[in-house]
Amino acid sequence: MLDPTPTDPAGPTPHAESRRAVLRRLAGLGSAWLVGQGVVQGQERGAGPDENAAQAAGTETAEQSAGGPVGWTEFRGPTGQGQVPVESRIPLRWSESQNVAWKVPVVGKGWSSPVIDRGTIWLTTASTGGRSLRVVGLDAQTGKSRVITPAIFEVDPRAKGLARAGNAAPTPVVAGERVFVHFGAHGTACLDQRGQVVWKRVVPYYHHHGPGNSPVLVGDTLVLVCDGFTGPFFDKYEREGVTAPQFVIGLDADTGETRWQTPRDGKHSYATPLAVDCGGATQVVCPGGDGVYGYDPVDGREVWQCRFEGHSLVPRPVTSEQFLFVCTGYHQASLLAFRWDDLAQGGAVTPAWKISSGVPFVSSPLVVDDLLLFVSDDGILSCVSAETGKPVWKQRLGGQFSASPIAQGKRVYLGDEEGTTYVFEAGPRYRELARNSLPGKVLASPAVYADRLYVRTETHLYCLAEGGQEGDSVRLTGGEQPVEPARTSARPAGRPAP
What is the distance, to the nearest Å, from the Cα of residue 62 to the centroid of all Cα atoms in its chain? Predict the structure, then answer.
């Protein structure tokens, strides 16, 4: 049920940064990812960029209109696909003693990625044995604490899941004055910039392994994918109010009230949805355990779907000018390429081509110009043509990978679970530029704001910048200590393994 917490008396502010503003600031990225933003393909299909920007987002933030840094506002950044703003000058090399502007210990456990806007970093964490779900806000320049909430939700002691990902894996969304946090079936909330709860509610379902997928904000609708199990599995906790095993739900971003809920018949899944432009109309692409679907974010109507074999899917989709790329899940992952014209026609669709070798179960792919890159959970990096899927090169890196890569122009940053980040050039052959290490496990994907790169390890958040010299670490609280690193298996992060 909805929490009766009153909204800010000043009233709601615009919920999403202007995609038009982002596009202006990312103007050197090329058109590889612009399909999803309603510009390149939208113009070709008769939908102008202003139209689609108005559909997909609200008014630009004051910081952006004043020329401030582009916010890293959701999982994988402003495009949702790992593209770094071209004006950012993030470091090529770093270590514990090189180019560290600051680091802070993070109390509790969580693998949500940082999001950053208006100079504030937002993280979720699970403290008190992983059962008190909290939100932390830090100054992006100094690392000093701005917000530390009390528990937004308390996990019922009867509820159990896989320990690997924990209860704070989904990445928040920040939009203007609002921060949206999601903890799967444990609860979803909207906070203001002071960390005060605007609204919160629980959407009941059996999230099986635990919370995994992040929310996406489309206009003033917060879309959640709730692909759960048919009932309790790791425990005997019967949740009240479960109406369907799998469904997608759209919440009013101002109030948290349900606008629509669309059930679907499938298998448990943990993939984050992606808002795209398709034929001049905004759609939300929502992969599921054994299928991928396109929905109208206004009413939740299913526009198209493609079924496949699989379950426990994690990677987020990515786009090119010609294709939408979707990974399938366990136990034999494939990567499917869908033509935009086929998706615009609706109904049952089939992929134009697919790849069945080296496809990740967890990490999301990345498009750089005419190349599609992805890394398998066991460290085989693949580069293929984004037009045909034909192999360009492969490189065995070894190790285990869960975090998703990011790209600044042709420079790609890809981190493994042991804290090593490979920096290489996307091109006709593998060309490594640097290999950097930080201590501690890393499952979260990195974030970028201005000229700084933010990396969350199991115990700390690092701010990396050229010329950065680490000073005294800033502590988040006066009394609490960082949790001891949990024992983790070598199993690929399945935010949840199947």
Answer: 24
Q: Estimate to the nearest angstrom the gap between the alpha carbon of 323 and the chain centroid.
A: 20
**Nearest-angstrom CA–CA distance, 134 and 122:** 11
pLDDT, tens digit, 9 for 90 and up, residues 422-449 = 999 999 999 999 999 999 999 999 999 9
- pTM of this prediction exceeds 0.90: no
Provide the CA 46 distance to its chain's centre, in angstroms. Answer: 30
Q: Rounded to an integer, what distance in angstroms lies between the CA atom of residue 117 and that of residue 150? A: 22
Which token pair is 319?
A: 């786009």
pLDDT in tens, 3-23: 333 333 333 333 433 333 443
Answer whether residue 431 is part of any domain. Answer: yes
Nearest to 327 by CA among 308, 352, 344, 303: 308
Asked if residue 488 belongs to a domain, the reply is: no
| CA–CA gap between residue 124 and residue 352 (Å, rounded) | 39
Q: Give the list of residues 6+ apart from residue 472 with CB closer than 8 angstroms, or none.
A: none
Q: Are 310 and 330 in contact (CB under 8 A)?
A: yes
24-41 pLDDT, tens digit per residue, is 334 333 333 333 333 222
Neighbours of 361 (CB within 10 A): 27
Share of the chain above pLDDT 90, in %: 66
- Measure the CA–CA gap between 482 and 475, rounded to whole angstroms: 9
> Are the C-beta atoms of residues 85 and 70 closer than 8 Å to each other?
yes
Reference 252, options 416, 12, 9; nearest CA is 12
Note whether 414 and 401 are within 8 A (CB).
Answer: yes
Residue 113, pLDDT > 50, answer: yes
In 94-126, which positions are buried (b, 16+ CB within 10 angstroms) versus exposed (e)?
beeeebbbbbbbbbbbbbbbbbbbbbbbbbbbb
Nearest to 198, CA basis, from 3, 481, 370, 28: 3
> Residues 485, 440: contact at Cβ < 8 Å?
yes
224: in domain = yes
pLDDT category at 55 given cuts 50, 70, 90 is very low
Cβ–Cβ under 8 Å, residues 434 and 417: no
Tokens (6 digits) for 353:
């081509």
**Residue with token string 């033509």:** 339
Average per-residue pLDDT for the chain? 82
SS3 of 299, please? coil
Residue 403: give the domain boundaries.
19-464
- What count of Cα atoms within 13 Å lies in the side-chain half-sphere of residue 309? 5
Average pLDDT over residues 320-341: 95
Task: Tell me, yes or no, whether 49 lies in a domain.
Answer: yes
The CATH code of the domain that includes 417 is 2.130.10.10
pLDDT of res. 84: 96
Instruction: Identify the pLDDT of residue 160.
Output: 67
Q: Residue 53: phi, psi to the nearest 5?
A: -65, -40
Q: How far apart are CA 393 and CA 136, in angstroms?
A: 41
CA 32 to chain centre: 19
The number of distinct structural domains making up the chain is: 1
